Amino acid sequence: MSLLSVRDLTVKFAMRDQTVTALNGISFDLAKGERLGIVGESGAGKSITGFSLMNLLSRPGYIDNGQILFEGEDVVQMNDKRLRNLRGNRMAMIFQDPMVTLNPVLTIGQQMTETLMAHRKLSREEARQIAIVKLREVYIPSPEERLEQYPHELSGGMRQRIIIAIALLLDPQLIIADEPTTALDVTIQADIMELMLELCQSNQVGLILITHDLGVVSQMTERTLVMYAGRIIESGRTREIINDPQHPYTQGLINALPQQTLPGQRLKQIPGNMPGLASIPAGCAFNPRCKYATDLCRSRVPETVHYGEVEVACHEVQRLHSDEDRQEARA
Amino acid sequence: MKDAKTDRPLLEIKNLEKRFDLDHGFLETLKFKQGRIVRETRSVHAVNNISLEASRGEALCVVGESGCGKSTVARLVAGLLTPTAGEIHYGGQRIDSLSRGEMQPLRKKIQMIFQNPYASLNPRMTIRQALEEPVRHHNPGASAGEVRDKVTAVMMSVGVDPSWAKRYPHEFSGGQRQRIAIARALTVDPEFIIADEPISALDVSIQAQVLNLMLEAKESRGLTYLFITHDLSVVEHFGTRVAVLYLGSVCEVADTRTLFSNPKHPYTRALLSAVPQLKDDRPNHIRLKGEIPTPINLPQGCPFQSRCAFADARCKSEKPKAIHQPDGSTVACHAVEEDRLDAVAAG
Fold first, then answer.
1. How many Å apart are CA B50 and CA A89, to the nearest integer?
2. Per residue in A234-258, pLDDT tens?
3. Are A218 and B278 in contact (CB under 8 A)?
4. Do B208 and A191 make contact, defined as CB atoms within 8 angstroms?
5. pLDDT tens column, B109-136
6. For residues A191 and A198, what is the distance between their CA atoms, to the nearest angstrom?
7. With an 8 Å Cβ cutoff, are B173 and A273 in contact?
8. ∠ at Cα A158 (A153, A162), nearest 5°?
9. Disruptive mutation site among B71, B160, B172, B205 for chain A (greatest number of A CBs within 10 Å)
10. Cβ contact (<8 Å) for B203 and A42?
11. What value of ipTM does the predicted structure carry?
């Protein structure tokens, strides 16, 4: 049985004059200890997916339909008490900006022991000892001293390590990391990525990594979902998706990276912008930006089909197969 | 490519320094130390003795991590900050000590593009107002029709539909706003553009669009760029020359191709190895010890010594000078000078 199984998840936002669909029938599975990447640009619905998994959406957003089965139990149907037991304990979340996630008026020690004591019957001293062990695991030097410090006394990289330590405090089965390294410098980002990879592998923790950076996904994950305008348009093993993308959008995204073009030459850009949620075009949401779009693409939403090694939602994937751009992407 | 008239680079930065005082006023400078009251002024050493030059038609990229002083360099060159010491020459003229009035003709030649197009466009001005203002300011004699034609032409050239001119910035997406910000810089026909992280706030597919636009403008208008970024893949694509900054000092300056194929400074090597690669299964990045120290009290010696695997006694006491290398790059590192780097790696 998979650790997490999402079926037909639909999330809507009730605005004053209309209701918009942010996630449109998302389905995916995650095995125990598996690392999954969710990629896409702003507005694709990646973060909403992360929030929904923990049932953290707040008004005007709501889960309209679908199931989120975590260890066989539906998160959507859970009452508050069950949710409290789930969040932080069995599933933990790491956010982009560590300065916003940590409480600025509490010491690191208070924030860590608070979490432990809320979930487990532990004395303050026992909780402190566990906190010190977890800080060691994320390579924080002199953890005893750090427990007495406030978030503003620490650097960005150090704060993100502490966030990771807090996420791991209760030995969760799954960590959802929403752009965990985006706010960090490259050298620090590389350290944090290595740390997360090591911790997930050694503790058999599942990871859902939400990011816009294909390089990060490529180094961190085993499987990848590509999202566009609230739908999964391509999914499969990360290696296959990076080396041999099938959906025109995924191809465009990879080809648009500067390292895919010779220096000084024009980058292969995708024309246009991602549509806003209120104005998603009929048919395939990507059709106005897609050079392969046909009348069918403009009228009907494509089904997800198995093609090659990946699952892809595109009407034209057969025709695309012989196209030269794709050959380029593969080279 | 040297400037035809003077045979000098278009932009020359000589021994530039910038400090920001942390303690303003007499009372803030008083400190209590060892039972006595002493006066002490602390300052952030944002830029320390930087020398750079950019020839006409070049795209000089300045890279580094947060706090290395790259944005301060951009602002100093643009005249938005006054240097604490050092000189900036543009087209043979010294520009760092000019008065506001003397700076005016240069502002037409030097334009700046900022990172966040949500903050750099006035939300209460329509696109037309935002684009017409600089044209009118720099060409007081131009008629309303001429101004309008100029703005329309520039809007077309950056791919912004002129019929959108009546709209306000909030009606546009991030990528379109950045196009408008670029259009605003181009309306006065500048020759030099300072771009401070112009694509960092944009999505991948939009980054490509904006970068292409800047490349096109470079070719069609013969622009020279000072491009500030933290993204090395963009540097490799866009830059002709690269300067790597660390803690307010230049580590290495080289042609883009030389820097990426043969990085010399230990920091440059670590930085390049840290970029997440798309198709590399084995991440083999060079781990740096610790984190960037604060620029408030700079360590003696090499700024990078606290994180460098090759640091020795000399690095701790003496700040390395920039030394020219046979392949045309300039590197400030004792280990490179003494040829210790590869000896250690091999042994």
1. 51
2. 999 999 999 999 999 999 999 999 8
3. yes
4. no
5. 999 999 888 888 999 999 999 999 999 9
6. 11
7. yes
8. 100
9. B205
10. yes
11. 0.79
